[in-house]
Amino acid sequence: MSENKDPHVAEHGTSVEGVKFVYDFTEGNKDLKDLLGGKGANLAEMTNLGLPVPPGFTITTEACKVYLESGEEPAALRDEVSAHLDALEARMGKKLGQADDPLLVSVRSGAKFSMPGMMDTVLNIGLSDKSVQGLAKQAGDDRFAWDSYRRLIQMFGKTVLGVDGELFEDALEAAKAAKKVTVDTELEAADLKKLVTKFKKIVKTEAGRDFPQDPREQMDLAIHAVFDSWNTDRAKLYRRQERIPHDLGTAVNVCSMVFGNLGPDSGTGVAFTRDPASGHQGVYGDYLQNAQGEDVVAGIRNTVPLAELEQIDKKSYDQLMQIMETLENHYKDLCDIEFTIERGVLWMLQTRVGKRTAGAAFRIATQLVDQGLIDEAEALTRVNGAQLAQLMFPRFDESAKVETVGRGIAASPGAAVGKAVFDSYTAVKWSRSGEKVILIRRETNPDDLDGMIAAEGILTSRGGKTSHAAVVARGMGKTCVCGAEELEVDTKRRRMTVPGGHVVEEGDVVSIDGSSGKVYLGEVPVVPSPVVEYFEGRMHAGAEDADELVEAVHRIMAFADRKRRLRVRANADNAEDALRARRFGAQGIGLCRTEHMFLGDRRELVERLILADTQAEREESLKELLPLQKQDFVQLFESMDGLPVTVRLLDPPLHEFLPDITELSVRVALAESRQEPHENELRLLQAVHRLHEQNPMLGLRGVRLGLVIPGLFTMQVRAIAEAAAERKAAKGDPRAEIMIPLVGTVQELEIVREEADKVIAEVEAASGTQLKLSIGTMIELPRAALTAGQIAEAAQFFSFGTNDLTQTVWGFSRDDVEASFFTAYLEKGIFGVSPFETIDKDGVGSLVKLAVKAGRETRPDLKLGVCGEHGGDPESVHFFHEVGLDYVSCSPFRIPVARLEAGRAAVQSQGSDHR
């Protein structure tokens, strides 16, 4: 519970003697959501503000907890409900369910957190065979009364008595068929009266009892049904997925009903204090005369713009405008309002902070700052990284006519259109000729990097959100859809077969949506993002032609940068990505993966290194690689001049740089059958067999490579040192950090560091330049986290590789598990979200905390960062702020998101400290 809980409320599991279980709407407030639920708290708040809310009362979540634990309602609850019902009846001047002019109430659920459609509601309680006559007389509308009664029996039968809802639906369909009509509203009062009789028979047959005619029994049973709905399978699954605690319980709101369908001086509507689509101020909403809310929702009749209410009922309109202004100023945010006018009297049925589009969220936040309603810190809490990401990526024009042919995993947002190509070589070739292409593969590997760079987007039939295709695509800001299993990709025949048998040949145009995972035939027009143009420097905030949204984003980002403690770096492997990262606000490079520098034209040199039989051959290969590596680093240091650049030494298994074992075996066999020379292919095949591992990600890779292959790491360290020396000679300011991957014990790091220090000293002596190169390690194995105190003795910094750490903690192979069973785990609520997307705080997060604490106890000035995919995940950024990391590192296109979330984390932690 929050600090605003009622002091008389019993804690979970304690005696309930003297505890208050029912609150009139006049007694609560908006800060009692733990106790009164969101709906009840807001109804109470509006009541306290003197706004016209239909009288009612709220049964607390504490009552629900007692009921769920014991199977019985608290002993005092019935008497409290009776007292509040008596007061309600006195206020309304009529009794619940009385024969003439009956009081009717709704019984609605209302938990602290919104759980749409998960729990139960019953309307029109108080109607019976007698009171329906009084309602008809009161309303002057027999049809309205009997339809209301029909709805009560249907809802009550299904929700409270457990009757199969299909039985009611079948009876309703039969009534419409007999009348030869297609919609409920075409049934007349006599038809509905017959339907009521049929519904009561269904209740008697299926529930073994008559529909209760006692209005108080209806209400009590409905209250219990709402309590019970907290623990339905669907509600529990929803809570698991949304990470809502199971012990909160739900409040129950009993509210007198008002009707907007009592004539032309009545009506119902929905209003927003600002446009939820754009954020603009004005009169936004819909109104419908002589109608109830369900008529608006069902679209039975056309609504009119809210502004027209001024002509229909100026008194109610003026009152509503004043109330809307009051609510927005009070909640200091966009409010979503439901209202009813009953015979010229305005009633407020609900208010809540309204949902809005991503663009509206940024505009409204800055508008409220300008109006003095909130400060900059509060503005940061009104937006989030997910909304910013939505604004950054181009999207398809939803109004366009499209043909959807498949759907996969939305791996990297954006909208991409191009000609289908099925290999990297063709992608590069066509791209250089000016064609836009979509690279389609079953799955990608490092060999496809050139093609991925050339393509507008990547589509695979295998893999998940952290597969090679997904990770690399996000790093490059490329649109990517992975795991579209219904698409049959045939790379040899250069074609893709889609459901229904249609074949996409190479050269056919396809479109992929990385935000939804959808795949389309043909070209779907896209709408560019001005926000990306702003970050890229092509649109300037403050300019005359600047987009209004860009101005809002610019201001919010400035707020975030002023507030945040965490620095934000980029995962970048080349100068182009580094420059883009700087434009996006990166404060350095947190991960440069050197393995990406060994592909393409250098592959032959790597093969020679692997095939070397003697030390001399190995040294010759390394000697040829050295100047190429050095030039890579010179360009990178120049792009990031004055900012830190963390270079990770070679990490993946060497067999990834060799041809596929099956393809190579076929080549060797064919050459032998044709008696063609194949000595080099045979040596390659022998090397592939020699290096083959059952589980290469847990085999010869990372620091193990540097220890087993003499000269490999020292070559890379020398290239880094010489590049830094060259930049210093050119008056640059290189700030290189050398990172050793996959360390599991301090001894590994000590050996590599000793060799690295010697090389650095040699370069310093030769160049006459003092180099300030720090040496650290990735913490990506559980043992490294558990022995972080020891490892910190030899490391000047830690960077948490949370991708591999998640794999090794969970025992997951991420490329396999997402496609095999993650969907089932998400559906069953075992995961609320994939642990590869958002850090697992309880497991992986605990190891991070332990390593941070132990590392800094050994070395207080230890620099700490994270360079896994989690570095750009909004929720994970907050965790990294909390545990005290110095920086997060992520792909260039996620940098703005990380900056924003780092600012939000700082603001929220300051708020927690103050509390």
Explain the overall architecture.
The chain is built from 36 helices and 31 strands. Helix 15 (385-392) runs antiparallel to helix 36 (895-914). Strand 19 (495-497) and strand 20 (503-505) form a beta hairpin. It starts with 21 loop residues before the first strand and ends with a helix. An eight-stranded mixed beta sheet has the order 12-22-21-14-15-16-17-13. The protein has an eight-stranded parallel barrel with strand order 24-25-26-27-28-29-30-31, surrounded by six helices. A five-stranded antiparallel beta sheet has the order 1-2-5-3-4. The model is unreliable at 1-15 (pLDDT under 50). The protein is 46% helix and 17% strand. With 915 residues, it is of the alpha/beta class. The longest helix has 25 residues, at 615-639. It holds the Pfam family PEP-utilizers. It comes from Streptomyces africanus. It catalyses: pyruvate + phosphate + ATP = phosphoenolpyruvate + AMP + diphosphate + H(+).
What characteristics describe this protein?
disordered N terminus, transferase, eight-stranded mixed β-sheet, elongated, single chain, eight-stranded parallel barrel, alpha/beta, 915 residues, 36 helices, Pyruvate_phosphate_dikinase, magnesium
Question: How far is the N terminus from the C terminus?
Answer: 14 Å
Count of DSSP H/I helices: 36
Class derived from helix and strand content: alpha/beta
Percent range for helical residues? Answer: 40-55%
What would the average pLDDT be, to the nearest integer? 88
**Largest beta sheet: strand ordering:** 12-22-21-14-15-16-17-13
Residue windows where pLDDT falls under 50 for at least 5 positions: 1-15
Number of extended strands? 31
- The proportion of strand residues reads 15-25%
Morphology call? elongated
Major pleated sheet: 8 strands, mixed
Radius of gyration (Å): 33 Å
Catalytic activity: pyruvate + phosphate + ATP = phosphoenolpyruvate + AMP + diphosphate + H(+)
EC number: 2.7.9.1
Family: Belongs to the PEP-utilizing enzyme family.
InterPro entries: ATP_grasp_subdomain_1, PEP-util_enz_mobile_dom, PEP_util_AS, PEP_util_C, Phosphohistidine_dom_sf, PPDK_AMP/ATP-bd, Pyruvate_phosphate_dikinase, Pyrv/PenolPyrv_kinase-like_dom
